[in-house]
């Protein structure tokens, strides 16, 4: 167990987020339902007295038992796929790392094992969705869209239950007490999490399940449901909707194909599990990462061929930069630098650091390939892809552009947070690295 003091700035940011984030999600979904996705119109109406907070609230669909049933079936199904169906896809998909995999070493020195079966869960879920749409017709493919705001209440219930459970569990029965992080502030503990890797039993890992399953498997289904709604309402699906579906499906499939790599990212390696991850995965991700498709249901934009081609190009180049950068670091770290990057042996800086128990370790920071161009080109690629999803919606409203604003804040903040951590970890070796690679996201600019 370790403790940390929280500064006033972090604490204020945490309390502000806890108080505003649920309303922000409601706002972005509600404006589509009531105002055709105009962000300014409700504000103008509120200002002029034409609408009140109460009238907006009363017009919003409320919780329904149908939505509760759909969501219960959905989450239970994902739990069953996660817990009861060991991965077999790695046996016949060359190059795919599934099945039981090791995570990174935790601050207390543990290496957890994970059952990597996300790709399989995604494939089974989508095969069933397809079979339903084509043959069985048990439910309409627009089911998600048709219950969208009632589902928002259900996801909020789960998000708060999971975060509160993780919080109480950390005090009463932590999975590994050595890896718990307490601060003197209860809000901060609740939001940023206490336990590092809370688990139930040997295999139900909260971080992997909530980060990767109910939200990210649903992401592509939510988009398909939006496309089905366009078809139902207008009799056609726009090229913008197809672009959003395709580009985001590439991102989701990439996530599952590389789920074992994901075990080594900041979410799993450094963040503790609290409201930020628990509520964020259940509510923020499925509702705000899919805003473009939602917007296109209300505003069916048909793009010119040039515009569509430009969006596709931006999305694919962004994806290439994102994936190649992540791949280069993964390859470099796995082979301890004994590999080839851009046809050459990678260059690097040798670093030393001490872990919590005081023992000395060594590591390497790559200074060639994409990691020699800037320190976080993986974030830059991610941002290019995010901008492409937004640009697919045309320029009629700012609503779909919320995503790029949010991703920029998220990744810039993450970059600063990560660099602060690396600087404390590696000390003067980190300084040598930042001297060798001076820019963070955009060479010559930032
Ligand atoms: P990174 O994969 O960039 O990992 C950062 C860590 O890599 C550092 O803490 C350090 O860890 C190590 N490192 C830093 N520089 C080097 C170097 N030059 N050579 C070798 N190792 C280095 O960060 P994330 O985990 O945040 O992101 C992974 C991906 O996930 C990104 O592409 C990001 O865009 C994406 N992402 C997407 C989100 C979304 O909501 N769509 C949210 C968050 C991330 P160490 O201590 O081991 O040295």
Automatic annotation (TrEMBL):
Q: Which reaction does it catalyse?
A: cholesterol + NADP(+) = 7-dehydrocholesterol + NADPH + H(+); 7-dehydrodesmosterol + NADPH + H(+) = desmosterol + NADP(+)
What are the subcellular locations of this protein?
Endoplasmic reticulum membrane
UniProt keyword terms in alphabetical order = Cholesterol biosynthesis, Cholesterol metabolism, Endoplasmic reticulum, Lipid biosynthesis, Lipid metabolism, Membrane, NADP, Oxidoreductase, Steroid biosynthesis, Steroid metabolism, Sterol biosynthesis, Sterol metabolism, Transmembrane, Transmembrane helix
The question of whether Nucleotide-binding is a record keyword is answered with no
State its Enzyme Commission number(s).
1.3.1.21
In the record, the note on similarity to other proteins reads: Belongs to the ERG4/ERG24 family.
User: What PANTHER family does the annotation carry?
Assistant: 7-DEHYDROCHOLESTEROL REDUCTASE, DELTA(14)-STEROL REDUCTASE
Official protein name in the record: 7-dehydrocholesterol reductase
**Upper taxonomic lineage:** Eukaryota, Metazoa, Chordata, Craniata, Vertebrata
Q: Which gene encodes it?
A: DHCR7
């Amino acid at each position: 167990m370790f403790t940390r003091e929280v500064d006033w700035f972090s604490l204020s940011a945490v309390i502000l987020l806890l108080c505003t984030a649920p309303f922000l999600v409601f706002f972005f979904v509600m404006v589509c339902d009531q105002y055709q996705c105009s962000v300014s119109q409700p504000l103008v109406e509120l200002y002029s007295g034409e609408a009140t907070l109460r009238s907006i609230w009363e017009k919003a669909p409320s919780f329904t038992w149908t939505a509760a049933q759909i969501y219960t079936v959905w989450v239970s199904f994902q739990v069953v796929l996660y817990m009861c169906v060991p991965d077999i896809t790695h046996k016949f998909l060359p190059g795919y790392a599934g099945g039981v995999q090791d995570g990174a070493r935790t601050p207390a020195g543990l290496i957890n094992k994970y059952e990597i079966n996300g790709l399989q869960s995604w494939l089974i879920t989508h095969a069933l969705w397809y079979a339903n749409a084509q043959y069985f017709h048990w439910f309409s493919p627009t089911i998600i869209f048709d219950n969208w705001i009632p589902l928002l209440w259900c996801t909020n219930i789960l998000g708060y239950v999971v975060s509160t459970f993780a919080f109480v569990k950390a005090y009463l029965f932590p999975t590994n007490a050595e890896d718990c992080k307490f601060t003197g502030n209860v809000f901060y503990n609740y939001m940023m999490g206490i336990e590092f890797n809370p688990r139930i039993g040997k295999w139900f890992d909260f971080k992997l399940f909530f980060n990767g399953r109910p939200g990210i498997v649903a992401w592509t289904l939510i988009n398909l449901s939006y496309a089905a709604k366009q078809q139902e309402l207008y009799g056609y699906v726009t090229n913008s909707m197809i672009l959003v579906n395709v580009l985001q499906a590439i991102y989701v499939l990439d996530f599952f194909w590389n789920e074992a790599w994901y075990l080594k990212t900041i979410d799993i390696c450094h963040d503790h599990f609290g409201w930020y991850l628990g509520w964020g995965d259940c509510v923020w991700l499925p509702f705000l990462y899919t805003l473009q498709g939602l917007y296109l249901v209300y505003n069916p934009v048909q793009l010119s061929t040039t515009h569509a081609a430009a969006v596709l190009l931006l999305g694919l180049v962004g994806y290439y930069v994102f994936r190649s950068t992540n791949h280069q670091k993964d390859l470099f770290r796995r082979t301890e630098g004994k590999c080839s990057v851009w046809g050459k042996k990678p260059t690097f800086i040798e670093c030393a650091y001490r872990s919590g128990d005081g023992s000395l370790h060594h590591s390497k920071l790559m200074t060639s390939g994409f990691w020699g161009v800037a320190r976080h080109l993986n974030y830059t690629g991610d941002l290019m892809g995010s901008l492409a999803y937004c640009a697919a919606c045309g320029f009629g409203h700012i609503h779909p552009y919320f995503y790029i604003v949010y991703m920029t804040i998220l990744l810039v903040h993450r970059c600063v947070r990560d660099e602060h951590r690396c600087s404390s970890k590696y000390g003067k070796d980190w300084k040598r690295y930042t001297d060798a690679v001076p820019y963070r996201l955009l060479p010559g600019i930032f």
